[in-house]
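Before the break, one more example. Copy the sequence into your notebook; we will annotate it together after we see the structure.
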Amino acid sequence: MTTTDIRNMVSRYQEEMIRLRRDFHQHPELGFQEKRTAGVIAEYLRTVGVSIQEGIGKTGVIGLLSGKLPGKTLLLRADMDALPIQEQTGAAYASVHENIMHACGHDGHMAILLGTARTLSELRNAFTGTVKFVFQPAEENLGGAREMIRDGVLENPRVDGAFGLHIINQIPVGMIAYRSGAIMAAMDSFMIRIKGKGGHSAMPEGGIDAIAIAAQVALTIQGLIQKELSPLTPLIVNVGSFHGGTAANVIAETVELTGTVRCLDEQVRKSIPGRMERILRGITTSMRGDFELEYSSGYPPTINNARMTELVRLLAIEVAGADSVFEVPPTMASEDMSFYLQQVPGSYFYVGGGNA
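Here is what the structure looks like once it is written out:
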């Protein structure tokens, strides 16, 4: 069967996929609450002859489809969850739920994967091996991929390769973008509590100003850590919140800072908590204060396997044409497809949605 034959087959499902995507968009659900979404997905997979497993990773769904002969197992993944955002598009299929919206393309990802499942179901006698269609909950709030991996999504049968995609508005429809190596960043978070000593602003000698210490900390950790690394090593340390003090004439006793750390290199990532603690100890000691640091690991960097990415590139050219396929630089956003790619070779790529 030629690429043109497959394209013609897929075109027959276009209206059906549009309907599914709009249904998902109209009924968005937050992470680990995707019960209706999972039900729609499971029922559709059944109707196209794909066997299913439900309740994987709490609300996730797996579809299994085997070809005519045994072979490799490929995992194709779509995320299901929406964001806590109020929709204001005015679309006929706008969200029916207040402050919940598919604003990150996951509705489209699910429709794409369901269309892929239907197409491959009709072509099951034309390929060998097994395809796992993975509909994952909670990509947006740290947990979905890890929960599915804990529940065995990479086993029975063991996955040999994993692929995922993301629709992005920065690329026109019809374009496909790829990258070998790091394509998206790790994202960790931290909370720093600066401890001083309260007092009256008229008698500063009796207090230890936590705000002054925290201000020095905020400026230093965002700059000094970068100075310890090669300028060719991307790293963002961002302090996103700063809370302390109770009154204008009172020396603040405590201040809390929260923020995120993003980088593309796993070894750099592992070094940051120690570097941050050393800087905190130096500043607080010199200014007579103290600190607590809570550092939480989030998503690892999304690292694409070179061989799998070359496969994506070649197939994308076959489908879209060489002029519509290009390599992209990495982004400092994060994505929990990274957890799958830590354990099996695979690739994560972008599909254009800019003028859809």
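The chain has nine helices and 16 strands. The longest strand covers residues 186-195. Try to locate both features in your own notes.
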